């Protein structure tokens, strides 16, 4: 994770560094150009002031006064006639410079003009302002400022920029380190959590990491850990349940097979033991069949062959087959369904669902109670209710009754039979048909299963 921290920090640093460099470059150039422009404007303003004085009083004393003023400042003045001859100067300025500058003067505006602004290569910055005596151009006022003064100013400005750049880089590094730590710490925690998950340790707890994408990822890992832990527990319970369900009949088979092999038992006893062996083998066969069905559901290879079914006719056929078992237990069975209700379903699988639910109702019903199958059409859906008046299911068991090998009877009484997979298979079949199944129950008041499936309108 240090690698990603360094990578993130490096990329952020490079990005900010490039942005800051570009901004510093434009800011630096902008300040320099502004400062040079200010110097030129100041220089031209001084020249215009001298021009105004000369136009009011053009005499020797005025010229000397102007020269004296500029000799005490960091600028120089040169005053020439209209032909370029120097008539006053505050410093010794090379005549060649004056001649070169005079060539640039064609018709300078009264407000003056900039003659030289190249502060990097030239010796002076310069401006010129024409002055007029009696409405005639009588000469020019040249103002000069040595560029080394400007360069010193810019050099100090560069030092400030350099110091500001170093401080910016320092603060940027500190900020990036803090941000990298803030950003990568959740990733490090999630990496450690996923390592624990890969080792099979699902007791992962991640703190709340906020409402952003990282927070959602952390919640996803937490949920994954919870689901994997649940699946692990379910798998362990599943394997334990299979072991229990197989161990008991196998113990019976082995035990009674050993007894049947004895020579000192009667044929009647041997037949009894062989019948028990047959029943237990049949029990194992039923368990394997149920497991095979569930395995096909898990692999999504369980096929449903739907066709249009008259639900009333199916229920009447089921009634004919199962009613003797209800009569034998002295339990009343009633079915109420309109002959005009049709559904799209696999007849074999849907019949398996109804048989399973009715068989459960019979197992947990007392004598002289009643079991009712009622079919209603509600909002274009078919609702099938299988209601008994049996023992009922404790409230704490209701959320789990569709689980594999889950039994309300924790003792796994053999008197009630079954593999504990029936309701799990029922739920899978109903959902494969695009329907839902739910249950309501209370102790000693019976249980009601509700199946909701779409109606066939054709």
UniProtKB/TrEMBL annotation:
It is a multi-pass membrane protein. GO terms for biological process: cellular response to phosphate starvation. This is histidine kinase. The keyword Repeat does not apply. Residues 181-233 form the HAMP domain. SUPFAM superfamilies: ATPase domain of HSP90 chaperone/DNA topoisomerase II/histidine kinase, HAMP domain-like, Homodimeric domain of signal transducing histidine kinase. GO terms for molecular function: ATP binding; phosphoprotein phosphatase activity; phosphorelay sensor kinase activity. PROSITE patterns: HAMP, HIS_KIN. Its EC number is 2.7.13.3. InterPro entries: BphY/WalK/GraS-like, HAMP_dom, HATPase_C_sf, HATPase_dom, His_kinase_dom, HisK_dim/P_dom, HisK_dim/P_sf, Sig_transdc_His_kin-like_C. It catalyses: ATP + protein L-histidine = ADP + protein N-phospho-L-histidine. CDD domains: HAMP, HATPase, HisKA. Its main location: membrane. It is found in: Cell membrane. Keywords: ATP-binding, Cell membrane, Kinase, Membrane, Nucleotide-binding, Phosphoprotein, Transferase, Transmembrane, Transmembrane helix, Two-component regulatory system. Residues 241-457 form the Histidine kinase domain. PANTHER family: PHOSPHATE REGULON SENSOR PROTEIN PHOR. GO terms for cellular component: plasma membrane.
